[in-house]
Automatic annotation (TrEMBL):
InterPro entries: Homeodomain-like_sf, HTH-type_TetR-like_transc_reg, HTH_TetR, Tet_transcr_reg_TetR-rel_C_sf, Tscrpt_reg_YcdC_C. Pfam families: TetR_C_3 (PF08362), TetR_N (PF00440). This is TetR family transcriptional regulator. Residues 12-72 form the HTH tetR-type domain. One of its GO terms (biological process) is negative regulation of DNA-templated transcription.
Length: 205
């Protein structure tokens, strides 16, 4: 698509439709199983029309993942060094859980990419994500050394938060089958709050 002019309303609408359709197709079939034809059909556009906006399946995927990572990492970026450490972490857990509830397809799309060895994301993981995790791990370590929260391996703490919250999106079918009709998000917020509050609250508090 030409870069010389600002996109029109129709162009913005079509790009949004393509990305929404791609999210559905990629999260269902994975990158390898998805085709441009499937995405075009899901978006209600012809294949040539879709290719006017994105020259390839890879271009669509890269745009989608760039948007996803921006949204997905915002809660971690928001950990406030000047906030109450325990409440900052507990709020982070709840934001991650809410994202699994609101954006299950995005979570599954990211998980599928990682399971495949992250061939299209490894550079981002090794640079941008690594830098953010190092920054926030150092913050967690400072809070632990100051006695504001119990000591734990900061990176494994982050990994556990990711796995416990994103499980509800990535394994949604299994979770709901085993919950026998109960919405898993009814009890999950309290459960995770209790788990991490007990784990991280210093014993003298």
């Amino acid at each position: 698509m030409t870069k010389d002019r600002a996109p029109t309303r129709i162009q913005k609408k079509n790009r949004a439709a393509i990305l929404e359709a791609a999210l559905e197709v990629f999260s269902t079939h994975g990158f390898r199983g998805a085709t441009v034809d499937q995405i075009a059909t899901e978006a209600g556009l012809s294949k040539p029309n879709l290719l006017y906006y994105f020259p390839s399946k890879e271009a669509i995927f890269n745009e989608l993942m760039a948007q996803l990572l921006g949204t997905w990492l915002d809660p971690l970026r928001s950990l406030d060094p000047d906030g109450d450490p325990l409440e900052e972490i507990l709020a982070y857990v709840q934001r991650k859980l809410q994202m699994s509830r609101d954006f299950p397809r995005e979570s599954r799309l990211y998980a599928n990419e990682i399971v495949q060895g992250a061939p299209r994301l490894l550079g981002t993981i090794a640079t941008d994500l690594n830098a953010l995790v190092e920054e926030k791990s150092a913050l967690l370590q400072r809070w632990m050394q100051a006695g504001k929260i119990n000591s734990a391996h900061p990176k494994h703490l982050l990994f556990s938060i990711w796995s416990l919250t994103q499980h509800y999106a990535d394994f949604d079918v299994q979770v709901r089958a085993l919950m026998a009709g109960e919405d898993p998000f009814d009890a999950a917020p309290e459960y995770l709050d209790t788990l991490y509050r007990r784990m991280l609250t210093p014993s003298d508090n």
